Amino acid sequence: MQPVISFFPVGNGDMSLIRLLDGTAILIDCRIRLAADDPSDPDARDVAKDLRDRLPRDDNGRPYVDAFLLSHPDEDHCCGLRRHFHLGAAEDYADDSKPDEEKKIFIREMWSSPIIFRRKSKLHVLCEDAKAWAAEARRRVKLFREQGWASEGNRILIMGEDKDGKTDDLGAILIKSDDVFSRINGATNNYFSARLLAPSLVCDDEEEIDLRAKNRSSVILNFEIWATPVGMNRYRFLTGGDAEVDIWERLWERYEATPDVLEYDILETPHHCSWRVLSHDSWSNYGEAAQVSAGARAALSQARYGAKIVASCKPIVEGDGDPPCTRAKREFEAILDPVDGKFVCTGETPHTWAPAPIDIDIAAGGPRLREPRTATAAAATAAAAAPRAGCGD
């Protein structure tokens, strides 16, 4: 099959799906709001159906993902997890007799940062879906520790080391910072690799604690995806959850001498095209006088010729706050100018009043934007609605 990356219109949130040459499916985050599950609401795109339409089925007829990466446990990155995904032992899957559209999605392997195990605090109150993810991650890690192996539906990869030796016994399922890996669902895959850029080993110093107390503990991966079976044409997809300016500055400090590590053909703008990704200055306080961080911008400027930058957010409107931020959009467009690239927004494609998933084919000649699927008649005639926030809308 043609490799493709799909970005779903979920407002200010993330949900993207990678399909490799062999059909392997890698989901990064999810945000399926209650309104999107309500067929009587014409203003909310049914992104659950959009996702299911792009997923493979196993021999039992179950929709599945080979891997599900949760970049970080915020509500706008895991909303709908309990409603739409099977959590618990693989043998306890209970939907085989249900219609296809009612079957929960089977997660063959979880990819999770160790931060999930201790991120709950007064500053970070986990939503119910994040708690469910953490519980399932603990179950899978516990099973591995007991058995030394895990079967399909019980597997997990830990993205990044934890402090105080807490992950030292997990070598077989641990991806360390700066590691390049191509393992997925218990086997090597010949059609992709990925480099883990963050989180790095968590230290005890006050600066690191401060960083982790903010919205900056996201998993950052730079995928390399094969466009052809022989691997002669490979293209990069850089994804970083909600990683903000401090993290990108640190990455530039680490890779300034080897900037090719940060090169990309497709970038999903971190934190929904927020100004906080590019600056320490508050947009609401400084406006156009806010200063761009040279280091963060350099890290995010390693665009290859013809690169695509995708903002997963609501429509970007001048004077409408942050995120998304119009000046952040302008900075990303300026990054793309020298390489003849293209900036797109999930909340605006093909129309602000009827957004549809953005599919980017990983073709031999480079990533190519596919014409969006025709919007439903109901969506096409619906008036523009104010973007909804949270799982319970």
Protein architecture, described:
With 393 residues, the protein is α/β, with parallel strands linked by helices. The protein has one domain (4-371): Metallo-beta-lactamase, Chain A (4-Layer Sandwich). Helices cover 20% and strands 22% of the residues. It has ten helices and 21 strands. The strands form four sheets. Strands 10-9-8-6-3-2-1-20-21 form a nine-stranded mixed β-sheet, covered by helices on one side. A seven-stranded mixed β-sheet has the order 11-14-15-16-17-18-19, covered by helices on one side. The chain is globular, with a radius of gyration of 20 Å.
Please list the strands of the largest sheet in the order they lie side by side: 10-9-8-6-3-2-1-20-21
* Shape call: globular
| CATH class wording | Alpha Beta
CATH fold naming: Metallo-beta-lactamase, Chain A
How far apart lie the N and C ends?
Answer: 37 Å
Sheet with most strands? 9 strands, mixed
Measured by DSSP, the beta-strand proportion falls in 15-25%
- Give helix % range: 10-25%
Radius of gyration: 20 Å
Low-confidence stretches: 374-389
**CATH architecture designation:** 4-Layer Sandwich
Full CATH superfamily name: Ribonuclease Z/Hydroxyacylglutathione hydrolase-like
Oligomer: single chain
Number-wise, the strands total: 21
* Total domain count: 1
Class by SSE composition? alpha/beta
Global mean pLDDT: 89
**How many individual helices?**
10
